[in-house]
Write a structure and sequence with these properties.
By secondary structure, this protein is mainly alpha-helical. Helix content is 63%, strand content 2%.
Length: 303
Amino acid sequence: MTEETVRVLVASGFFMLLLFLRVEASRFGAAEADEPGGRRVGTLTRLAWYLIGAGLLWAIYQIHPAPHDVLYLLIGHRGDVILYGTFLGLIGLGQAAAFAWYRYGYLRLPPGREYPGAALNAIATAAIDEATFRGALLGTLVALGLPGYGAILISTLVFVVVTRAAGPGRHRYMLALTFGIGLAAGWATLATGGLGAAIIGHAVTSFAVFVCTGHAGHVPPAGQEPEEVELRKLPPDGWQDARRSLVAGRGAEPRGIAEQIEPSGFVSRADRLAAESRQPSGLEAWLRYAGRTIGDDIARRRH
C-alpha cells in the first residue's frame, strides 16, 4: 500500500466524521436548526459545531494528496465565481421571496437582533456543506470515473439524506430547496473548478430564506406559526368579544351584555284580548289625560 493510498484513506475517515457531524447538527443548534428565538442550545455549543467542521476540513486539506485537483477545495476562477455566484444568489433570493408570499402573503421579517447570528450561520454552514458534499464527495465521485451529471445527482441525494430534509415534521419546501441547492451547487462547482460560486449561492439562499420566512430551515406546516395560532384565538371578523378578564388568565365576566333585552313585540292572542278588555272607555280616558300637555306626555315617554 503506497503512501498516497494511505493518505486518501485517512482523508476518507475524516470525511465520514464530517458526515456524522452534519447529521448531528440539530444537537448543536446549528445549520438549519439555528432557529431564532427560544433556543435551548448555547452560543458556545453552536460555535463548537462550526469549529469542529472547519477543523475536519483542514485535516482533509492537509492529508489528501490532491485537495485542489481532485476535491475542488479551492475558490475557483475569480470571474466565473462572481458570475455564477451572483446568478445562483439571485435565484435563491427570488425563490425565497416567492415562497414567503405564497405561504404567508407577506415577507415574515424576523427581529433585527437575529440578523448577525443568522448571517454567520448561513455563511459557515454553506462553507462546510459545500466543502463536504460538493468538494470531498463530488470530487471523489468524479475521480472514480462517474460522469458529471451522475456524480452531481449522487452527491445531492447524500446531501438530502444527511441533512434530513425529508425527515418528519420538515416542510416539503425545504426538501425541494435542499435538492435544488445540491444540483445547482454541483453544477457551479464543475463549471468553475472550485467551491466559491457554490458557497456564495448557498449562503445567499439560506440567508434569504431566513429573512423572508423568519426560519433558518424548520418552516412549520400551515397554521402552526405563532401569529397564526394567536389568530385562531380571536373571534371571527365582525364578532366582538363580550368578556372582560378579571385576573390575567383566571376567568372572565360578561361585558356589555348585562342590559335588559328589549321585548320582541310579539303578543299572544290571549294577552291581546285581555289588554283590550282593560282599555278605558272614552269618558274615562278623557278624564285620565285631561289637563296634560304635550311636553308632559313626551317626558313621560322618555322615562
